[in-house]
């Protein structure tokens, strides 16, 4: 095993605990709509509150005879319009949390709408469209820049989280995971960090998505070991 891979493997064993107790990676691989909603509402929020929003959206779409788990951002925008715009959508589907603690910060529902509009403008309507960006650095960077230009999204955390929720194989490591890898083996690019995580997963017989998610939870200060059912 490569020395850097060994170092990262040892760090994961030390920091992440029993792989059987890692949280399963969240995701909606066929629903870009749910990825957008979850990522934007997840910042600074309890997971339970995000799950309630996802459940309300799914319930509304099911009542229409549709499947939220295959919705793209076009369907999401149509849903927002149907419910009277982002303010009304926040009351009926989302919640009224703002995008930040700054005075007069817009609601997260407005960020959901603006992100969806930015994606449509760049011909990214579905999870499949987003996956296609993995091999197109220029377009991926363009989409990331447009996403991060939306109020409250500048840090890129929600963009990185959306990539995880979409479960894009081969994506560059997000900022949080890359930071962890850098602390263990020295400065590396996001692409290199992702490759190192994959190599550790392969050598240890772990699921690469699960390892990435466990690192992300640990580095973010979130619980990374769940209770096992007795």
UniProtKB/TrEMBL annotation:
UniProt keywords, alphabetically: Oxidoreductase, Peroxidase
Listed GO MF terms: peroxidase activity
Protein name per UniProt: Heme peroxidase
Species of provenance: Mycolicibacterium peregrinum
Highest classification ranks of the organism: Bacteria, Bacillati, Actinomycetota, Actinomycetes, Mycobacteriales
């Amino acid at each position: 095993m490569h020395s850097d891979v060994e170092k990262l493997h040892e760090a994961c064993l030390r920091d992440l605990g029993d792989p059987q107790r890692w949280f399963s990676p969240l995701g909606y691989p066929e629903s870009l709509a749910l990825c957008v909603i979850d990522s934007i509402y997840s910042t600074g929020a309890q997971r339970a509150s995000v799950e309630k929003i996802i459940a309300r959206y799914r319930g509304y779409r099911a009542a229409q005879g549709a499947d939220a788990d295959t919705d793209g951002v076009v369907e999401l925008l149509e849903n927002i319009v149907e419910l009277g715009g982002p303010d009304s959508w926040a009351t009926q589907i989302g919640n009224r949390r703002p995008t930040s603690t700054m005075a007069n910060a817009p609601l997260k529902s407005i960020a959901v709408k603006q992100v969806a509009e930015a994606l449509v403008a760049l011909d990214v309507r579905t999870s499949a469209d987003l996956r296609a960006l993995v091999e197109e650095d220029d377009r991926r960077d363009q989409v990331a820049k447009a996403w991060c230009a939306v109020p409250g999204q500048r840090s890129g955390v929600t963009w990185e989280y959306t990539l995880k929720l979409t479960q894009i194989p081969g994506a560059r490591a997000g900022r949080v995971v890359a930071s962890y890898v850098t602390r263990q083996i020295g400065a590396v690019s996001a692409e290199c960090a992702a490759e190192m995580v994959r190599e550790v997963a392969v050598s240890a017989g772990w699921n690469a998505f699960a390892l990435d998610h466990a690192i992300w939870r640990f580095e973010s200060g979130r619980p990374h070991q769940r209770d096992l059912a007795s």
